[in-house]
UniProtKB/TrEMBL annotation:
GO molecular function (one): methyltransferase activity
GO biological process, one term: methylation
EC annotation from Swiss-Prot or TrEMBL: 2.1.1.-
Annotated protein name in UniProt: Class I SAM-dependent methyltransferase
Keyword Transferase assigned: yes
Organism: Branchiibius cervicis
Amino acid sequence: MSDRDDGAGEAWRKLAGAYERARAREDSLDRLVEWPAQRELLGDVTGRSVLDLGCGDGSKLASLVRDGAVNCVGVDISGKFAPDQPADLTLIQGDLSDPASIPEVAGRRFDRVLFLQSFGYARDPVATLRQARDLLTEDGFILLTRTQPIRYAIERTEQNGTRLGEEYFSGSPYTYRTGWNDQITLTKRTFTMSDLLNVIAAAGLWIETAVEPRLSEEAARRFPHKQAWMNTYLGIIMFRLRPVPGR
Ligand SMILES: C[S@@+](CC[C@H](N)C(=O)[O-])C[C@H]1O[C@@H](n2cnc3c(N)ncnc32)[C@H](O)[C@@H]1O
């Protein structure tokens, strides 16, 4: 699983503004489903240091700092960060694939390491996750959230007129126009759930909790088009990961 699209960095530099505008909409799934579920899995962050790999414009990390997190670092390839960040937050333009080589990260330990919808861009997923594990404090954990692999398989069945199993197991990369800016394509390596679980195991981590977040009943009533989308494409899956002792 080392077939990252090397155009992703360039694509994300162009996409960043449109992505953040879409995320800020009142009916965005990030706002309605993903961030609330991610925030709940993080729990109390008071006095905790957080490393956010693929942090976007840094606003989720800024919100954690406002909730009491300290000495936080965000890394994103786009380098398009929101202005007026709180103190105690360092944002760096860089590649999440090799976090231990980033000067502001090297030699440090963090209580929480986040990959929020960014892990798919790691060049070598096992190596990146191992590095993230080695950056944790003793009782630290990684929060890793990813698009459900079945979502991309369903989209490809719609494009190609194929069957779900054919696409889910196909293994070929998936290139698609993003919903945030239809001039820009992203290429994702496809993966199955067992691929992802095997990456986690190979990196010496165990799954403390897995969550597949859904719309609340109230949000589904207010935004039925989003419930319709979730009914077809499922959304994301989230893991709280801890080091297997001695590995
Ligand atoms: C779907 S967005 C998620 C952003 C943010 N974590 C969130 O939850 O809103 C993916 C992010 O990964 C970043 N990204 C893509 N490839 C990267 C890389 N190789 N290194 C660091 N960041 C990367 C993009 O610039 C983008 O901000």
